[in-house]
Amino acid sequence: MASVVCGALLAGCDGGSDPTTSAATASVTSTSAAPTSSSSPASSSSTSASASESATSEAYVPVKPKFPAAAKKQTDEGAVAFVEYYWAALNYAWTKPDAQILSGFGTSECDVCATFEATAQNFSEQGQHYDSPPIKVESSEFVYNLKTEASAVTRVEQTKSSVVDRDGTVISSNETQSAVRVFKLKWSGKWQVSQIAEG
């Protein structure tokens, strides 16, 4: 029951793997795991049909988040605002999909940031996207802010959402799951993510 979100988040915690490969592997894994969400492969067509019908009546429309003014400042509140914006941008990147919105928000050291961007790019190329935001931020807490570095902890929920193709066919689905992620940030005239680790 692996999902793109789980794969990407776990890749960020483990580190070391090539981000593009991780995103591609997560996507392939989710596709092969799709039948486990239904009782049998034969029922997948009816599942897709009902998902398609509900998508028609309650389709989620992604809205591009605005970069908050607070996130432009090197303050405690600015660091938290930036981290919360990052999650909102990730949701938009994977629901639209938009391969550009996350560009420049991660440093070259942030492997998980590269994985998130690669996943958005993969979605764009394959004509896939999440049917609703896969991440819900439950809380964000400032940890420290020293000269050019800062840290914040977020508690998030991986939501019950699905990756669908252009026709609305469900490729894979997430199960609800809670997680804690620690963001390490760098300031160089603007905030950037240098690492996202398991909390």
Report on this structure.
With 199 residues, the chain is an alpha+beta fold. The chain contains five helices and seven strands; from the N terminus they run αααααβββββββ. A four-stranded antiparallel β-sheet has the order 2-3-6-7, with helices on one face. The chain has a three-stranded antiparallel β-sheet with strand order 1-4-5. A hairpin with a 5-residue loop joins strand 4 (162-164) and strand 5 (170-173).
Blueprint (SSEs and pairs):
Blueprint: H1 4-14, H2 19-33, H3 44-57, H4 76-95, H5 111-126, E1 129-130, E2 135-146, E3 149-158, E4 162-164, E5 170-173, E6 177-187, E7 191-198
Antiparallel strand pairs: 1-4, 2-3, 3-6, 4-5, 6-7
Helix pairs in contact: 1-2, 1-5, 2-5
What is the terminal-to-terminal distance?
A: 23 Å
Mean pLDDT: 79
Form type: globular
Helix content: 25-40%
Quaternary state of this entry equals single chain
Number of strands: 7
Question: What is the rounded Rg?
Answer: 17 Å
How is the main sheet built?
Answer: 4 strands, antiparallel
Number of helices: 5
Arrangement of strands in the largest sheet: 2-3-6-7
Secondary-structure element order, as H and E? HHHHHEEEEEEE
Poorly predicted segments: 1-57
Strand content: 25-35%
Structural category: alpha+beta
Structure described in brief:
The chain has 199 residues and is α+β, with helices and mostly antiparallel strands. The chain has five helices and seven strands, in the order αααααβββββββ. Mean pLDDT is 79; it is low at 1-57.
List key phrases describing it:
38% helix; single chain; three-stranded antiparallel beta sheet; four-stranded antiparallel beta sheet; alpha+beta; globular
